[in-house]
Recover the amino acids of this structure.
């Protein structure tokens, strides 16, 4: 990744943000901005999970740990201390890095199945702490009483357009940062470990350290998603730390695709739209969503953007077929793995 | 944290007996679920995250059978057999399609299934907590050992669960079926080459796991309140048990489950706010000291 490409991508990001900033004037109404704020929260969260799943091959089932941590930590800091939002923001990122380092040090050595179990277990530990420590966290009622939003740098987050700008700005900036991480030498080291963890040490790579770094980075971004959520609901709820939030994030990345950087974003849009549609149509949310998940998981077995990428590749190189590096590692496609 | 309460409990025989029996009950019910998870993973290499939902179904099946028959034995068997049959359908319809898939794919399928099952339970049995009630046969004066009160039903549960654990151990270690199952866990293609239909073996292990989870649900029903989502905590504890005991080991599942049960029951006295957390601490310690689990072979 060269400096010029960083410049180019930054310009693209600024252009995208400018378009996003104008959108509420074209699509009026609080419904749209609300949707986009939620999309920012879940988009960052799902993309950060894909850093682990898609790029590092680390199948975490407990990424909601960081979403819940970001939510509660940010909310609690703002309620307890007279600090500005950026300070609470940085403190939360710092806390998630500390937690990520401790939990990661225990988890990242484990093989795929244990890694999935133990990450989930740590997430449920946070959930049970939230439920148990009622005096601090509000227990199963959640963190109520609202989050103070002192203005900073002229940004007033109690105004919904400001909140929209703040969230989409964070979304664009986070995506840019994560994109550069996966395009960096570090990102390619992750891919190598994913594809051949046995070979990496022979090339002088400390697999443990690289995976731990990936886990911590993904956790920090996951916490940013959680913070946006806590601003959106003006509080925090135990559900944000429950295992279903990890399940939803997994579904988002599987829905959108894990081989393309923006796949999780596409998945987040799809799942949020589906959520809104289903909750409007029926009270049996779980039933409908579960059926959609099964249809998708057993029928398609691949994310939307994975399909698009395969189609694109087939058209580029009609004779040679999909490139082996990605085809063999399409984690969402069982047949590819089964044939290994 | 209340260490003085814990210390004073540990030197009082009555408190030790009460907490130990309640810990054994938590642990042995957990074992019935965790053994299924562990077996299914050992043989099929599939993580059945929906196993907690099987336990829930067992409890609800038993509830309905008890309402209809008034006989607790029939109710427990209805839970076990009902879930075993359900497990067969589940394996053929869903799980058999994700053999060899990445873990997240398997978890995603189970996640979808749990959402559906929890919602179905709410539709069929209602969203409120259901109370099974203590079967009349067990409505007797409790036993008293050294001042510790032990309800008759608790003793019954412990004896039955231990008997099931023993039978399961014999089934796996002594019978021809057990030999095939153990062989299929190590080298399924060789088993298949010897003329054994591994598809049937896989399905049977899943049915066996379902039967155990259903029994656990039926046995737990009188001492737990029934609600959709009651399977979540037990499946996460099962994961912890398999991590502590070692994946695929029935003996490890038994030891791990009883450890978790005791930690939970004594933990409520010493660390009332951190009972759940203690399990995770225990798991983290085992992972750091012996990553393959107490009874696990091979590295994790």
């Amino acid at each position: 990744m060269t400096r010029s490409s960083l410049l180019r991508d930054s310009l693209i990001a600024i252009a995208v943000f400018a378009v996003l900033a104008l959108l509420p004037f074209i699509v009026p109404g609080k419904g749209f901005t609300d949707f986009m704020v939620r999309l920012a929260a879940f988009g960052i969260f799902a993309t950060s999970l894909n850093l682990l799943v898609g790029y590092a091959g680390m199948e975490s089932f407990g990424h909601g740990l960081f979403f819940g941590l970001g939510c509660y930590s940010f909310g609690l800091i703002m309620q307890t201390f007279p600090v500005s939002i950026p300070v609470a923001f940085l403190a939360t990122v710092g806390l998630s890095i500390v937690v990520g380092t401790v939990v990661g040090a225990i988890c990242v050595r484990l093989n795929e199945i244990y890694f999935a179990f133990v990450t989930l277990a740590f997430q449920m530990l946070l959930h049970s702490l939230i439920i148990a420590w009622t005096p601090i966290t509000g227990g199963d009622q959640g963190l109520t009483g609202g989050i103070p939003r002192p203005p900073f740098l002229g940004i007033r987050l109690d105004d919904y357009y400001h909140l929209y700008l703040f969230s989409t700005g964070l979304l664009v900036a986070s995506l840019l940062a994560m994109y550069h991480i996966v395009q960096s030498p570090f990102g390619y080291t992750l891919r190598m470990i994913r594809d051949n963890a046995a070979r990496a040490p022979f090339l002088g790579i400390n697999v443990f350290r690289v995976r731990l770094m990936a886990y911590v980075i993904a956790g920090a971004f996951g916490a940013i998603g959680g913070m946006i959520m806590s601003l959106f609901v003006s509080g925090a709820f135990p559900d944000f730390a429950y295992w279903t939030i990890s399940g939803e994030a997994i579904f988002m990345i599987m829905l959108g695709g894990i081989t393309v950087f923006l796949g999780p974003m596409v998945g987040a849009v799809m799942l949020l739209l589906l959520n809104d549609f289903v909750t409007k149509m029926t009270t049996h949310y779980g039933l409908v969503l579960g059926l959609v998940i099964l249809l998708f998981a057993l029928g398609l077995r691949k994310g939307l953007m994975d399909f698009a990428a395969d189609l694109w590749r087939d058209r580029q190189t009609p004779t040679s077929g999909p490139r082996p590096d990605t085809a063999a590692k399409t984690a969402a496609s069982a047949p590819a793995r089964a044939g290994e | 944290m209340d260490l003085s309460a814990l210390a004073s409990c540990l030197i009082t025989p009555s408190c030790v007996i009460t907490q130990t029996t309640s810990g054994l009950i938590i642990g042995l019910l957990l074992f019935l679920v965790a053994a299924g998870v562990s077996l299914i993973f050992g043989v099929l290499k599939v993580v059945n995250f929906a196993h907690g939902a099987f336990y829930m179904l067992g409890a609800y099946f038993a509830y309905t059978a008890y309402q209809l028959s008034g006989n607790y034995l029939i109710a427990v068997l209805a839970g076990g057999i009902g879930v075993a049959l359900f497990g067969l359908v589940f394996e053929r319809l869903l799980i058999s399609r994700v053999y060899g898939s990445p873990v997240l794919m398997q978890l995603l399928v189970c996640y979808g299934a749990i959402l559906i099952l929890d919602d179905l339970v709410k539709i069929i049995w209602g969203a409120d907590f259901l109370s099974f009630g203590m079967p009349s046969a067990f409505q007797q004066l409790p036993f008293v050992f050294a001042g510790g009160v032990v309800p008759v039903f608790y003793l019954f549960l412990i004896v039955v669960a231990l008997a099931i654990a023993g039978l399961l151990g014999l089934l796996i270690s002594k019978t021809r079926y057990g030999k095939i199952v153990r062989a299929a866990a190590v080298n399924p293609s060789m088993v298949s080459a010897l003329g054994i239909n591994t598809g049937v073996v896989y399905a049977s292990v899943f049915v066996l796991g379902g039967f155990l989870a259903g029994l656990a649900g039926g046995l737990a029903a009188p001492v737990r309140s029934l609600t959709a989502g009651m399977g979540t905590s037990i499946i996460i504890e099962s994961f912890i048990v398999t991590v502590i005991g070692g994946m695929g080991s029935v003996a490890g599942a038994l030891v791990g489950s009883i450890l978790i049960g005791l930690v939970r029951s004594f933990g409520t006295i010493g660390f009332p706010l951190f009972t759940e957390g203690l399990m995770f601490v225990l798991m983290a310690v085992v992972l750091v000291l012996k990553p393959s689990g107490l009874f696990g072979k091979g590295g994790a």
